[in-house]
Amino acid sequence: MSSLGKGIASASIGTLLQARGYSIRMKKLDPYINVDPGTMSPYRHGEVFVMEDGCEADLDFGHYERFTGLQCTANDSLTTGKIYEKVLLQERRGDYLGSDVQVIPHITNEIKNFITAGHEYVDFTICEIGGTVGDIEGLPYIEAIRQLKIELGSAKVACVHLTYLPYMKTSEELKTKPTQHSVKLLQSMGVQPDIILCRCEKEVNYDIKAKLSMFCNVKKENVVEALDAENIYLIPHRYHLSGLDRCICVHFGLETEEQEKLAEMKIREKWSSVEHAISTPSKTVKIAVVGKYTKLKDAYISLSQAICHGGIAHDAGIEIDWVDATMDQRDLESRLRAVSGILVPGGFDVGGAEGKIVAIKFAREKRIPFFGICLGLQLAVIESCRNVGGAINATSREFSDVGEMVIDFMDKWKLNGVVEARDPSGAKGGTMRLGSYLCKISIGTLAHRIYATTEITERHRHRFEVNIKKYKELFDKAGLEFSGMSSDGLLPEIVERHDHPFFIATQAHPEFKSHPFAPHPLFSNFIKAAIDYSIG
Ligand code: GLN
Fold first, then answer.
1. Quick check: is 106 catalytic?
2. Which residue's CA lies nearest to atom 1 of ligand 1?
């Protein structure tokens, strides 16, 4: 089922195999029919993760990149929509002349080709299958795995099945029935799991392992406990201690006594500093995130991770106050009075925009550290234009068709040598300014102090831009300093205020590039400013 932690389990397998010295690649198969999650609501599907190359992907890719340090690409993410798009194009071109196009073999062949593509360059390909065993959309994927195991041989493929062992409070025991049934269903499709990873809130004792081993036709040592953790960064080491990477290596005939000892040392070495920083911080700081999707934490998963990394950089635990931007203004302000930093994240549409503007005004006037991301930058520009520059009807084309359009569609500009344009009638899927773009930073600014360089790249995902062509004078009057500009100098990328101790916003999404081992400088400096503010 969803939320069981398949993404984190896959990412953990990745980092554990890396610690043993193997090279890896992470891939994901998503059975839904959308071509990518780009047009899905964060409430349905959680955050949309943006890769360096602009691919809009499942949030699990964020876990993969953060745990393994790899940079994933569009070639690592497959959906049913993408397969059908490709197969239908091939069919129209005449590639299948004479034959009828079928799920087996045409769709399953595409899945197998995807999984094995590029495998010669790495020791392991770790491929996660989204969804639940038995989902109708998932059938071709399970079938492809069955075929792959026959074609490559069991010695080259290991199937890891992540299941849930519910804990019954009344009888004080973990139940194995759901796992037994899910394995039976998998077996009925011709796939025998090699390893069962048991997600649970209590320890899995020997008797339960023996029972699962017998009923599920899996070796006892391959029934692996996956105990809940208070923080996801505690998981790799915990799964290692449960024997996960060891039984994978045994499966592939790779395990030796010597390697075992070395692996334990390497894993501990790699993860202990992060585990320590998270478990025993010397101070705590409270940050408000003022947004629209605050009820579902998965909608801001990279953001909350990047904030946590900022805390790791300063030995601080972070308490995030998720503030719903649509609440009453007075309640909003009283919530903000209790925090040491205010962050307005990315978002879409007018919902909650006025509440976020109230929060930005509050941060500006009360001199509370402020950090705006994407929509957060656009709203910071609108706030300053309205309340400092005197343009009371400043707005964004995304919210209204009347007023001063300080945020607008920019018609035909050149980005990295390519002419780009967005307009209201354009298709919505995959048409935003997406992926990594270069930004030039002015010397002597806050952005320059933070990045300590004059050229950076960050990942983008937005349709609208700051309308500097038309409103340069208003922006100057409003006290807005554009400290980062696109490489051609036409589009503002970073804005800050020099009459404030820490007020910065970026048009990009730096949260996608923050790692526990390398906290993003914008987040670590924001947290530092919040710590300083809290000390007073
Ligand atoms: N809705 C805004 C735009 O499309 C901002 C997008 C975002 O925050 N990712 O430009």
1. no
2. 348
Assigned token pair, 417: 């040598």
CA of 523 to the centre of ligand 1 (A): 19
**Is residue 468 included in any domain, yes or no?**
yes
Q: Going by CA atoms, what residue is nearest to atom 8 of ligand 1?
A: 346
Ligand 1, from 343, 349, 375, 507: best to mutate by most atoms within 8 Å of Cβ?
Answer: 375
Are 442 and 306 in a shared domain? yes
Host domain of residue 409: 283-534
Report CA(62)–ligand 1 centroid distance (Å): 19
CB 504 within 8 A of CB 261: no
Write down the pTM of the prediction.
Answer: 0.95
Residue 300 Cβ contacting ligand 1 at under 6 Å: no
**CATH label of the domain that carries residue 342:** 3.40.50.880
Ligand 1 center to 347 CA (angstroms): 6
* Atom 5 (ligand 1) nearest CA: 375
Q: Side chain identity at 21, as an amino acid letter?
A: G
10-residue averages of pLDDT along the chain (536 residues)? 92 96 96 88 87 95 97 96 95 93 96 96 97 95 97 96 96 96 97 97 96 98 96 94 95 87 89 89 96 88 97 96 95 97 96 97 98 98 98 97 93 63 67 91 98 98 95 98 94 97 98 96 98 94
> What's the per-residue H, E or C state across 454-486?
CEEEEEEEECCEECHHHHHHHHHHCCCEEEEEE
509 belongs to the catalytic site: yes
Give me the number of domains the chain comprises. 2
CB 374 within 8 A of CB 434: no
